[in-house]
Amino acid sequence: KAGVTQTPRYLIKTRGQQVTLSCSPISGHRSVSWYQQTPGQGLQFLFEYFSETQRNKGNFPGRFSGRQFSNSRSEMNVSTLELGDSALYLCASTPGGAGDTEAFFGQGTRLTVV
Amino acid sequence: AQTVTQSQPEMSVQEAETVTLSCTYDTSESDYYLFWYKQPPSRQMILVIRQEAYKQQNATENRFSVNFQKAAKSFSLKISDSQLGDAAMYFCAYRSSGAGANSKLTFGKGITLSVRP
Question: CB A103 to CB B103 under 8 A?
């Protein structure tokens, strides 16, 4: 079974631009969550999508958005990039039920904003 | 809101020795899961061990075991017979498991574990 795939692995963007990151979950998983990891703030939850609907949202500005497609693949978008958006962005997938016992993570997308 | 605290930013252990990583959490919920994740330099988050809050027995996975103290809201990880491959960043994480729960994980700040040969 293929794992969680995130693309691209690395990105360099200029301040003010926008960026789209992609996450393909494990086959059969319907929930995709996104996390931002920085040295200063650690791992922070961005949002979760389940069956194409946002089920939970963290405390991030509206510049951060996401969506999920019918095949459960998810994208997150960051508009008007700021230097502070430089981070490792991780996505995790689970089947999506209350009994989920493990989240499976991708290898992340390293975003650098210059 | 739930919080997870890992107060030790770094720890070091001699190969083949035992090390314990500490974690405390705060929650008003009764149903939840606790996890330890490992993040090596490859950045891939790997589940090390999980504990269901309703289970009194401490979870064990080979060389990894936990000391779960529900009343004290403490969840420490013990690594026995440490190996060079155990060197990584370790994160303690919390997830609700009651009705209506979603998949959100709340992480601690992490601890960097180094293993001395």
Answer: yes
In whole angstroms, what is the distance from residue A14 CA to residue B42 CA? Answer: 25
Interchain proximity A56–B91, CB inside 8 Å: no
Q: Which residues of B79-90 are buried (b: 16+ CB within 10 A; e: fewer)?
A: beebeeebbbbb
Residue range A6-35, pLDDT digits in tens: 999 999 999 999 999 999 999 999 999 999
Q: Could you give the CA distance from residue A39 to residue B72 in angstroms, rounded to a whole number?
A: 28
Write the burial class of residue B65 (CB in 10 Å: 0-12 exposed, 13-18 middle, 19+ buried).
middle
Which two three-digit tokens encode residue A29? Answer: 């998983």
The verdict on A72 touching B (C-beta cutoff 8 Å) is: no
